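Predict the 3D structure for this chain.
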Amino acid sequence: MLFGNDTIASDVVLRSAQQVDVDFIYKVAGQHWHYTMMLKPDDAVASMTNAFYRLAQGDTVPAQRATFTFRRDSVRVDISGNVTRTEHLATQPGAIPYINPSSAMLEQVLMRAKAIGNAVDTVPILAVSGGQTVSVTVTWLGTDSAVMNLAGVEMRAAVGTDGSLLGLTVPAQGARVVRVAGMHPVVSEPIDYGAPPGAPYTAEDVTVHSPEGLTFTGTLTLPKVRRGKVPAIVTITGSGPEDRDERIPLVRGYRPFWQIADTLARRGIATLRLDDRGVGGSSAGPATATSADFANDIRAGLAYLQTRPEIDGARLGLVGHSEGGMIAPMVAATDSSLKGIVLMAGPAYSGRRILTYQQRNAVDQMSNLSPAEKKAALEKGMHQVDSLAATPGWMRFFVNYDPLVTARKVHVPVLILQGATDHQVTPEQADTLAAAFRAGGDKDVTVRIFPNTDHLFLADSSGQPGGYAMLPSHTVRPEVLGAIADWLVKHLR
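Done. Predicted structure below.
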């Protein structure tokens, strides 16, 4: 897989009718996976074993191993390594496991669709990281090509007579997949979370322990010049497993929390940013964890800051993006000692309402589908949401959670930031959320809406998620960074 002229990932694939053995390196994310899928006659997956390596730690011993055993509408996952446990996850019949962005797994989706034999079909995929099931719509264009649509991102594939992936382009992201003979693995690049040369602050690797027995890896940035103890914030990532910088590998250079930490350190404020559960060196925790459990992870980060002699424990705050903007009020509702929370595209609506809009927006971008096919794709997508919400876990919590109920319980200062072209958390939610904080008696609530700014707080007149990778700049707008810093300097002084 190439982004422009840079190789960002490689799959070395050995395939037979019964199994697929893959060595997958995701260079820009610092990940190495080795997995084997055992196939059914209809090209569905019967089982999969995988080993995950953290390249930054030497790439010699797997950090975690897992075996996935697929049944009709569920999968058993036996995990060993940094944790040992067995999980049972709801999924859809015929689901294909998916490690983003493994081309061999996309090939298996095509082979499964080929076996089904419809002109347009929906193939469910199970995200190995996170355990969520989503759908890929496959539209066949003759016998040698197909259009695949995953979460609103359109991929155009050249396909062999057996469904094999001969090549692929992702026009909105400028990515492409080429198939070559022989062994051509790439070498992954370690991730540097340190301070740049000459920075007026230090960046220290730290480990945080939670009362639940979980361990989190992260980075603490501290201003070098300190007149006594300094204030600090904890950052909170959006949905899905993310690293401490909240990077999106295909959106090259996007590291919003690194930018925020850099900006705040230059204004005298420390920042603790943590890897999510199962990312970097952080414990995976149970698969049934919800946003409420993630709020406990942030509470553990705040407790860690209280132990640091350089930090003023009476001057702490939070900065959360997307789902992080939903989690921050959960923490603030039970901790009135916080001096302020910053919500970047924090939702005001229930998860069901948000997912309904997001899926409708994604389907609307599928130019290859007729109106009837779009309607059917949306109905299938929401049916899968309902199926996943029927079992305990993140999805059930998310679709039913009402952020406004929690907002009315918060009595600490709040800054709400929103992009005017956001198609993931729509702009009007900022004022709705602010009204809920004020209705509960919060006297210090500020809203800032930035024109031509998307969900990632990048300059973007369209705001469609499928176009993020092709934007000319992948750095957070300076106006947004300035607004965060000015407000926190005032409230943490």
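The chain is about 25% helix and 30% strand.
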